[in-house]
Design brief:
Heat Shock Protein 90
Length: 254
């Protein structure tokens, strides 16, 4: 069994400060850079997910060290990533990581299947046999349904923001949902009723050149999305307004 205290100490052996409570972390300060990478201890206890996060930390620090070496004597570079736990369900564990670094700010999400010990992309939630086929092009029906829900929510958000500032309405070409970082929104009853898409800066500027920051869009689960979902994930999802609860549930953000 993983000992949280020993694990935390091992990760931060060279750190000038202890990990925040209930987290695993890598904290390192050198003459050329400052590195912080933290994630919930609950994620560290999940086989496979812990290794994925530690691999991300290793890669991030390596990139930081390389950039710091190229930076020379122009000051210390900084990198800080903090992951929060969005959902800890028997079928899906989800985290959202926010990064503030020398090369900008960004958001990265993780969906993870704790039973199969593998990372999930949005497309992995849907049955491979449920495709819409158009000549030489095909797409899972679940992704098409997710795209429709996302585009509707994004269009409403852009229209509302621009109307509030009395800016002219734009003809919007909706970006691809699979190009965005997507996280589930889990309610207090242990079901995922919506998803949150962190729209890339490039796509945010494309749909709204005057946007002060990238869009974060909540879009509802739909019956069409759930209907073509793989059976092992379907039980974790529900429709907006659903009140059914589950015995095993953990939705820290609810």
């Amino acid at each position: 069994m993983l000992n949280p205290l020993l694990f935390s100490l091992a990760l931060s052996a060279a750190a000038p400060a202890p990990c925040p409570a209930d987290t695993a972390c890598v904290i390192r300060d050198t003459e050329t850079y400052s590195f912080r990478f933290t994630y919930p201890m609950a994620a560290a206890r999940i086989a496979g997910l812990d290794g994925l996060l530690r691999e991300r930390a290793t890669e991030a620090e390596a990139a930081l060290a390389e950039a710091a070496a190229e930076n020379g004597q122009n000051g210390r570079l900084r990198f800080e990533t903090n992951y929060r736990l969005d959902a800890e369900l028997p079928e899906i564990v989800a985290l959202t990581g926010t990064t503030d670094a020398w090369d900008g700010q960004r958001v990265e999400t993780i969906m993870f299947d704790p039973r199969n010990r593998e990372r999930l992309d949005l497309v992995n939630l849907f049955g491979a046999e449920t495709f819409d086929n158009f000549f030489f092009w095909s797409r899972p029906r679940g992704i098409r349904a997710a795209q429709d829900s996302f585009c509707h929510a994004l269009s409403e958000a852009v229209r509302a923001r621009r109307a509030e500032l009395q800016l002219r309405e734009l003809d919007m070409a909706c970006p691809d949902i699979e190009d965005q970082q997507v996280a589930p929104i889990c309610n207090g009853r242990g079901r995922i009723l919506a998803m949150r898409a962190y729209v890339t800066p490039e796509d945010s500027r494309a749909v709204d050149p005057d946007a002060p920051r990238p869009y974060a869009i909540d879009f509802d689960m739909t019956a069409e999305m759930i209907g073509v979902m793989k059976q092992r994930y379907r039980v974790a999802f529900g429709l907006p307004g659903e009140t059914r609860g589950r015995r095993r549930r953990s939705c820290p953000g609810a």
